[in-house]
Design brief:
The complex is a heterotrimer of chains A (76), B (363) and C (334). Chain A is α+β, with helices and mostly antiparallel strands. Helices cover 28% and strands 41% of the residues of chain A. Chain A contains 1 helix and 5 strands; from the N terminus they run E-E-E-E-E-H. A 5-stranded antiparallel beta sheet of chain A has the order 3-2-1-4-5, with no helix packed on it. In chain A, strand 2 and strand 3 form a beta hairpin. Chain A is elongated, with a radius of gyration of 16 Å. Chain B folds into 3 domains: 126 residues, Rossmann fold; 150 residues, HypD, alpha/beta domain 2 (Rossmann fold, 3-Layer(aba) Sandwich); 48 residues, no CATH class. Chain B contains 16 helices and 11 strands. Chain C is α+β, with helices and mostly antiparallel strands. Chain C has 9 helices and 14 strands. Chain C is globular and about 65 Å long. The chains are: A alpha+beta (76), B alpha/beta (363), C alpha+beta (334). Chains in contact: A-B, A-C, B-C. The interface between A and B is large, with 39 and 53 residues.
């Protein structure tokens, strides 16, 4: 459940980060995600980062989808 | 939008759909626990693109929908106390309690404010030292840590006019109660992605192990959900039952241990009443005694009066997955988004609202 | 003159006259208004469009505009959506005492500039001042009159099966620009409101001679609500495609964060047109030459039906019903 969306950390001041989501900049509290650093993508829920986003995993997932799509196209 | 738009790609979706069509032989019924999954499934029309062998079923994972009338009445009574500023996420405002809603008491003059974040309630408290600011703490594991963080911050800042009315609930006990009731037979569970960011996928292992039901944690983009369905179908066809993650960019097995610790510091489990499911042991969260100075139930003498349930409303059965909104005699006739009878028609991720808005009524 | 608006400025006495002459007329004067009679006397003939609207936007100054620009655009756009060429406007202020006169001047200058661009004259008006707290800073009401060119027959009831649905540009810009300035929301953006007078764009479209059946500006309630109104009015099914609807990244980001659907977010400088299919390309070509229609594109078409509705083809190729906005757009957790 719950509205949460990935954003890119542009700067950090204390426990507050400025996060770029689409074309907007949003303040996100890093108390739940103290390991996050500038350049990381975090998943933001009600103004709090709840986790860092694993960019390598995202890349591998999309590569997997590409492979699946290629198989489907070949079968057609 | 990076890490969202890529997971909405039509061509990749067609690949996943073809794979599901190829591998799915056994007719299966999967439940999406989470209301946001229900919304995504309808919003993108995922039911239409899945093969006929795959049925998806909405579960009880909408915090607003499962909040019992007695709790809503308490919040409404609290908002009516002079000198109280009630702060709430937007979802809750229109939900009818036994007699009225927060939106209606606001129109009568109560100070009810919509917030985006728990941080906003802290700011309102700091800006209004002569008022008592109550934060309506609602949500499952995803939202609870943000409320816990706010309470800890209030303590650190020695705020004496801030408190939380905790409606927080835990999702695994609800899923367990649902399975124990024997009301629905499931072939797989689409596990909530953002709850699992906090709890870790481990929270669902008992379902695979004790109930033999395949579990896959899913994100909320259409490709995430299709991948989840594919993984569930594969498990079913191989007669396996384990917990997998179709949202590996966000979810790990252990979850967010920092958030878990914060929640554990501030809250302790308690029995909680769920709409349609009755009282489930250790399924709610209340503030620990050490934080009672931030517990609205301790601070205020709240008298919500007698509770009343709307006649004819089958929200409870819809939440358990026993009935769909289409089975309700009130659906679309007496009960519609402009005049909601039950909570499932109000909440933006309620099954009834989703069916109504996204045309499930025409299915 | 004082720096702020006082109750006496609305009393009808000397202070009121000075305010009107020195602040309001100095910015807006024209032949009809300068007569200062109790009512404007106009020569009208032929088919005439008449509309009114009230403006209560908060904040009153926002990126891309202010309440004054909005008050002119909103009403002249409503005229233009009937195909009318806007001619005259009334302008009424309800002002909270203590409102800075410098802000009023800023708003008036924006009204003057926008009225000039829309080709409309302000010919009558009124100013009331109320006690502090009785209005939020300043409200404006405008009513407008426009002349409908011969041959134009544009109405929400005229949509025909086969019509192409044309959208003039990206959706949600106004709503999100306003929200970015609201207290309590923690986001910032360079995005500006799309608030713009569309009468010139409509004139360019009509000049093509195309069979334009209906025009509507999707303001509050957004594109989804407007399309639903039109499908009901004409008794048709409107099919649109999700991937063809332009949404700016800023709007998408804010909507994802707040749990909104851009289809329901307000616009103040966009229109949807329903045009006979053979004429769609010429209308789009004309629109793209105008700065307010540069992104014009076909987003769908109209079908015959027993049950009027709006259906959207999703990115997955599935279709779903699109309903009107329910309640308010409020930030939500789930």
């Amino acid at each position: 459940m719950c509205v949460a969306i990935p954003g890119l950390i542009k700067s950090i001041d204390g426990s507050l980060a400025q996060v770029e989501i689409g074309g907007i900049t949003q303040t996100a509290n890093l108390q739940l995600c103290p390991q996050a650093k500038v350049g990381d993508y975090v998943i933001v829920h009600t103004g709090y980062a709840i986790n860092t986003l694993d960019q390598q995993e995202a890349k591998e997932t999309l590569e997997l989808f590409e492979a699946i799509a290629r198989v489907a196209q070949e079968e057609n | 939008m990076k890490y969202a738009s890529e997971f909405r790609d039509n061509r990749l979706a067609r690949g996943l759909i073809a794979k599901i069509e190829r591998s799915s032989r056994t007719p299966v019924k999967f439940m999406e626990f989470c209301g946001s999954h229900t919304v995504a499934i309808f919003r993108y029309g995922i039911r239409q693109v899945l093969p006929e062998t795959v049925t998806t079923l909405s579960g009880p994972g909408c915090p607003i929908c499962v909040t019992a009338n007695v709790d809503l009445d308490k919040a409404i009574a609290l908002a009516r106390i002079p000198n109280v500023i009630m702060t709430s996420f937007g979802d809750v405002l229109r939900v009818p309690g036994s007699y009225t809603s927060l939106q209606a008491v606001r129109a009568e003059g109560a100070d009810v404010r919509v917030i985006y974040s728990a941080m906003d309630a802290l700011k309102i408290a700091a800006d209004n030292p002569a008022k008592q600011v109550v934060l309506l703490g609602i949500g499952f594991e995803t939202t609870t840590p943000t409320i816990a963080a706010a309470i800890l911050q209030a303590k650190q800042e020695s705020l004496t006019n801030f408190s939380v009315l905790s409606w927080h609930k835990l999702s695994p006990p609800a899923m367990k109660a649902l399975l124990d009731s024997g009301d629905v037979a499931l072939d797989g569970l689409i596990c909530p992605g953002h709850v699992s960011i906090i709890t870790g996928s481990q929270a669902w292992e008992f379902i695979a192990r004790d109930y033999g039901i395949p579990c896959v944690v899913a994100g909320f983009e259409p490709l995430d959900i299709l991948q989840c369905v594919d993984m569930l179908v594969t498990q079913v066809e191989k007669k396996e039952a384990r917990v997998e993650i179709a949202y590996s960019r966000g979810v790990q097995r252990e979850g967010n241990t920092v958030a878990q610790k914060l929640v554990d510091m501030v809250f302790e489990p308690c029995p909680a009443q769920w709409r349609g499911m009755g009282t489930i042991p250790a399924s709610g969260l209340k503030l620990r005694p050490e934080y009672s100075m931030f517990d609205a139930e301790e601070i205020f003498d709240i008298d919500p009066g007698p509770t009343r349930e709307p006649a004819g409303c089958i929200c409870g059965e819809v939440l358990r997955g026993v009935s769909t909104p289409l089975d309700c005699p009130l659906f679309g006739k007496v009960c519609h988004p402009e005049n909601p009878v039950g909570a499932c028609m109000v909440s933006s991720e309620g099954s009834c609202f989703t069916y109504y808005l996204y045309g499930g009524k025409n299915e | 003159m004082s720096d702020t608006i006082l109750l006496a400025h609305g009393s009808g006495g000397k202070m009121a006259h000075r305010l009107i002459e020195e602040v309001i007329l100095s910015d807006l004067s024209n032949r009809v208004l300068a007569r200062m009679d109790d009512s404007a006397v106009l020569d009208l003939s032929g088919r005439t469009a008449f509309t009114t609207d009230s403006y209560v936007v908060s904040p009153i100054f926002f990126p891309g505009g202010d309440i004054g620009k909005l008050a002119v655009c909103g009403t002249t756009n409503d005229l233009a959506m009937s195909g009318a060429d806007p001619l005259y406007l009334s302008l009424s202020f309800i002002i909270e005492e203590g409102f800075p006169i410098s802000d009023l001047k800023r708003i008036l200058s924006s009204i003057r500039n926008t009225a000039r661009e829309a080709g409309v004259q302000i010919v009558t008006g009124d100013t009331k001042v109320v006690n502090r707290g009785n209005v939020d800073k300043l409200y404006i009401n405008t009513a407008g009159i426009g002349k409908i060119p011969s041959g134009a027959n544009i109405s929400g009831a005229n949509i025909a099966p086969g019509d192409k649905v044309i959208l003039s540009g990206s959706i949600g810009d106004h709503g999100i620009a306003i929200m970015s300035k609201r207290e309590g929301l923690h986001f910032s953006t360079e995005l500006e409101s799309d608030c713009a007078p569309l009468s010139g764009l409509v004139a360019d479209m009509i000049a093509t001679g195309a069979r334009i059946h209906a025009l509507r500006d999707p303001t509050r309630g957004g594109l989804a609500t407007t399309l639903n109104e039109l499908s009901d009015q004409s008794g048709v099914k409107i099919m649109i495609e999700e991937e063809k609807i332009p949404v700016r990244d800023e709007v998408l980001g804010a909507c994802e964060m707040l749990g909104f659907d851009p289809l329901y977010v307000a616009n103040e400088g966009k229109l949807v047109a329903f045009v006979a299919p053979e004429d769609a390309e010429s209308v789009i070509a004309a629109m793209r030459k105008n700065k307010y229609g540069a992104q014009a594109t076909i987003i769908g078409q109209v079908e015959q039906t027993e049950n009027p509705c709006v259906v959207m083809k999703t990115v997955l190729g599935a279709s779903r019903l699109i309903d009107m906005l329910v309640g308010d757009l409020l930030p939500r957790i789930c």
